[in-house]
């Protein structure tokens, strides 16, 4: 009977999750096309983008602050202006953009996005606003060796995963294609001779070549990699699509996107080619300071709530009540059995379909929940390590079971598990970097911002490695100090 109840609890748990997931489709099916009216009513058009694709979208340093710039941003501003509203730009990982659109985190996505049959099944697309060609970025030392894609035989070529350039390179015979998610990583691989060339959108390739010494761009000679850039909207948002298409049509009459938006975006990019690495990185000190603040904020709040959740679910799992025990087991095993990155995205996008949760709040909630599952097992292990004689002695002195647990067992258990809790805190600080996928401005996010703005790949990585080490080493020393205090108190 107990096993049957336990299975029933697990079944209800997963049905609940599926129910949350199902709300997205129900909402979409029952909503009429009042998208444009709603946007005009709230006075703002929210644009989602991934600012790591200059000159279309990139993060620029203006008076020590992050600001998203680019040709696509100018396009979004023009669309919003024609709608009579203001534009709000929300940054997130490229892979999260369409999910954000489907869960109403953003109203439209402009990110050098290409319309595909698969994507068209879940979102609506505008007409093409720009047709881009494919360029090759090579080291200047290879300019006499590589003049087009014909010279890539028996060589390795890099391209962004999911791009049309990646698909085109994969089709070439005798060419090894290496896919990476971030353009800066591809440039680093090229400059360190890990690959012979990078296949990229022609305008993006030119932007990187203009701001990096030692590399240059050439025409690929490969027209199969050309692609149309489109704007994505929620499925069925025809009023928004029609409004955007009117703006696109007006811009195309004078070829404004190519003649005005792209050159203006390129002019806003910093020129760091002749500047030393130390000087260029010092300009971004405010970026790193902001990243440290958010990383510590996430970690401190998450560890507090993680310990609270850990104590609650550890006691529930040790409880003789089968319902409390089953709930605790479901929570602990499910959280420990799924990737934390997925949990962060689920809280932000999944629960966000019901309640509008800001990115920072969603990151803290997800990391707290994840930490709570691991802390629960640490605390449970600490409690079970205490001799049963301690509890029996407390009961014989007239203490209740709750008093015995509070005043006798838990204090001793925390002394035993202190090193493990310290390790969990260090791990949590490092895992906070996963929140960057939903646009939380912690250290990893700021590092990507500095890479995109400075066009220096290795230096920002080295800096945040040192920062993470200083933070975690300091935490470890503090935890070690209190561990010694506990041991000293025990010996006394």
TrEMBL record:
Family matches, as CDD domains: TM_PBP2
Annotated localization: Cell membrane
Transmembrane portions of the chain: 296-316, 346-369, 457-475
Membrane topology qualifier: Multi-pass membrane protein
Broad class of the protein's primary localization: membrane
InterPro entries documented for this protein: AA_ABC_transptr_permease_3TM, ArtM/GltK/GlnP/TcyL/YhdX-like, MetI-like, MetI-like_sf, Solute-binding_3/MltF_N
Keyword annotations: Amino-acid transport, Cell membrane, Membrane, Transmembrane, Transmembrane helix, Transport
Annotated ABC transmembrane type-1 domain residues: 292-476
Family of the protein in this entry: Belongs to the binding-protein-dependent transport system permease family. HisMQ subfamily.
Name used for this protein in its record: ABC transporter substrate-binding protein/permease
Source organism of this protein record: Apilactobacillus apisilvae
